[in-house]
Specification:
328 residues; Rossmann fold; alpha/beta; 14 strands; 11 helices; 6-stranded mixed sheet; single chain; AAA+_ATPase; Alpha-Beta Plaits
Length: 328
């Protein structure tokens, strides 16, 4: 497969009187043709800055970017007609109907008029096409934004939070649409915080944290590289679960207490759990490995997992634990 999108060493720095902030710090990204690619990162990690820089809305301080084999932003006018994009919250004229809105965009972009109703059909707005946009819900406006990005039948579609405001049925419809577009030959880049959807829909992912790439590859390979050492533990009824978890924490275990069980997140040798507890006449009734998912990998790689008693701030990433585990 050939790369539709390539970013290498991208840098963007913001300066103020008080400090210098590196929004992008040598960021790399590659998206192959015909894929649905997930672009993931916590708030303030550099996702939107990357997309805005790629589309010529922000000037980078360094690095290289290319779309469809053309270096951008220098050759952006030559490839812009083959790129559809939504970045951040879309804005429309409230008194225009959806059909009027897309007709104006089609006329300005030299798109054939029949595409207007075709894309409204695709996103489920055909029967609401004559209603004013100001009467639309957030989810309907999001559908309209996706429709506008599809008008030009682009080779590369970039969507920033396309499921924002959608109900569960709408999220599933959007998932199906993205897969259908990829199967037709379009390349789709999705930026989203709905990690369960990303895991279901995407062929590959890039994860960014603090302006740097921390993971990239197929979804299956990223999950395989971060196989879970977390186990779920249940104890005999009536046992003081809090006291049991304190025993394990004193031995170095990373324990999360749930309502009727607890998990140990760094259990490279689960036998240690049963041994430590049995020495105090506390007996385990269940010891089950917890399957890794994209959300847990994301939280681990970006250092954004919740910590009891702490309120994590935007741009604040906790130190990621070193490789290995407790109980070895």
């Amino acid at each position: 497969m050939s790369a539709v999108l390539e970013i290498s060493g991208l840098q963007k720095t913001y300066r103020s009187r008080k400090r210098v902030r590196r929004a992008l710090d040598g960021f790399d990204m590659v998206v192959e043709a015909g894929q649905v690619h997930g672009f993931l990162g916590p708030n303030g990690s550099g996702k939107t800055t990357t997309l805005r820089t790629l589309l010529g809305l922000i000037k980078p301080n360094g690095g290289r970017m290319s779309i469809l084999g053309q270096e951008v932003p220098r050759h952006l006018p030559e490839v812009a007609g083959q790129v559809g994009a939504i970045v951040e919250s879309p804005q429309f004229f409230g008194n225009f109907t959806a059909r009027d809105t897309l007709s104006l965009l089609a006329d300005a972009g030299g798109v054939r008029p029949e595409r207007v109703m075709a894309v409204l059909e695709l996103v489920g707005l055909r029967d609401r096409a004559k209603e004013r946009v100001k009467t639309y819900s957030l989810g309907m406006k999001q559908r309209l934004a996706v429709a506008s990005a599809l008008l030009k039948e682009p080779k590369l579609l970039i969507l920033d939070e396309p499921a924002n405001g959608l109900d569960p049925g709408g999220i599933r419809e959007m998932r199906t649409l993205m897969r259908d577009l990829a199967e037709s030959g379009m390349t789709v880049v999705l930026s989203s915080h709905i990690l369960g959807e990303i895991q279901l829909i995407c062929d590959s992912v890039t994860i960014i944290s603090a302006g740097r790439r921390v993971a990239a590859g197929s979804v299956s390979s990223v999950l395989a590289q971060h196989a879970s050492t977390t186990v779920k533990v249940r104890l005999e009824p009536g046992v003081d679960m809090y006291a049991a978890t304190e025993l394990l924490r004193a031995a170095g275990a990373q324990v999360t207490l749930e309502r009727d069980h607890f998990t140990v997140g760094n259990a490279s040798n689960p036998a240690q759990i049963t041994r430590i507890l049995a020495e105090r006449q506390v007996y385990v009734t269940e010891l089950t490995p917890v399957a890794v998912d994209l959300e847990s990998v994301f939280l681990e790689l970006t250092g954004t997992a919740p910590v009891d008693g702490q309120n994590r701030q935007v741009d604040q990433s906790a130190p990621v634990p070193a490789a290995g585990g407790w109980g070895q």
